[in-house]
Amino acid sequence: MNLNKTPLDDEIIEKLNDRRNKIVSRTGGWFAGKGVYSHGYSMLDELVGHKSYFQILILNATGKLVERNIADCVEAIYGCLSWPDPRIWCNQIGALAGAARTSPITATVMGCLATDSKAYGVLPIADCARFIQQALKKIQSGMSIEQLLEETFAANNGKKFVVGYKRPIAKGDERIVTMEKVCKTLGISEGPHLELAYDIEKVLMEEFDESMNIGGYVAALLSDQDFSADEIYQLLSTLVASGVTACYLDVLHQPTDSFLPLRCDDMDYQGKPPRSLPKKTIGAD
Amino acid sequence: MENDKPRKHRAVESRHAPFVQRTVTEIWLEKSTSDNPYIASQVYCHGYDLLELMKQRSFAEVLFLLFIGELPTAQQTQLLEATMVGLITPGPRHPATRAAMSAAVGKTNPLHILPIGTAVLGGNYLGAGTIEEVMNFFHQYQSSDVDSTFKELIQREKNHPNQIPGFGKRYGGTDPIAADIAAHLASLDAAGKALIWGEQLANKLAPFGQGWLITGVAAAVFTDLGIPSHLGGPLYQLMSAPGLLAQAAELIKKPITAMPFVTDDQYHVER
Tell me, what's the ipTM? Predict the structure, then answer.
């Protein structure tokens, strides 16, 4: 046994002992008979009934109590990115959960979990935010958009790809048009991140016929509201929940085995043909 | 800046991406009955009849077959089985196990205990989330001389071995259980470069009060068994799952008072 105890270890043990059976929170908590607090606000006196659910959601996800129009904008983003179509991968998990007759919570939560994906969902929006926030700093330092794209392509091993542009399945993104209208109604102006995002889109459209996708738009829009990439990731954690629930229920209420049934030969087996099991020898192979 | 004029956008159109008509698998073959194409009457794992595998092979052997595509040697089976025992639980103090136990004592549907526990075990601190990085570390260094690699690694960190994937401190000290498990596994016939090189590195780290982390041990075994790096984390979750469930099972029938609930006077809000 290796017991390389050092004086430093004693300090660590002391610190750990100090935290035993104790919670130290930088967020808040419930104190029976006194109230429940989030980031300095009394939940029941100052938030519930006074602020919208999305204002509270953003507060809990980022520590920031935003204006109502920003919360309404995030709510609209949730609407744009949560569709009841079971062909979308996270929604298909919801539909399959319906086929397997799980609980609605299983279906919804597992669908949300799937959006921790490199290909779609919430994780790429955080990447988009990182990109556009760094890009704006570079442009403000004098870099041209062409230089920015050249640098980005080089970092992608020459692949002509910019996160936030191009979309799987389709070209173009109708959700951006809707979000632009929502933002206009809510009085949310385009800021420097979104303006840069459109300028990049212009170049990519001319050269590659590829436009901005909703992830790129949302990342730039929320970056203009001073959210960091991590904060954007946090406040969009349950982004697809309602669409997943809808897909779950659609299949739940249909006969068992009826959602995309597969015959045995619908799986394209390309492995080893049936073979005999080798005799097992003890102590040798 | 506000634009009054609506922006012009590209029209939406399908890419007509070339999706396959059928999903390809090289793992599992199901042969249907003659009268019903949906009912399988014979199933094969990488070509071996499942019923034959049941009769003649152990769970660990078939697990290896599933992921690698061929049956393990007797030595590989011994290494895998010993590893599965060593990793069977993260212990009741690990956050993943505590999450599973919290679900159980909270009367959560028992069917959700494993998803909850294994998901928390997927974290990047002492969890499955680190395994891929550690496996890549072994792939990068396991063929190199440990002395020169050690010098290179500590030079990066101002002559102190911080942040070496798979190695480090637990609660300010070394983890003797991880060290003992690694030493046993490294003594087995199927131990390969990663385990043996890792043992040498652990010896180098000892004067700094550091050593193997259990995630490092798991990653070394998976590397030696030829498991692809991206599967190391999920496999670690799978191997630890029995302990997560067993620890939670102890609490399923107990009242919610069977686990501590921090009192208000021990709850401090710092702002």
Answer: 0.90
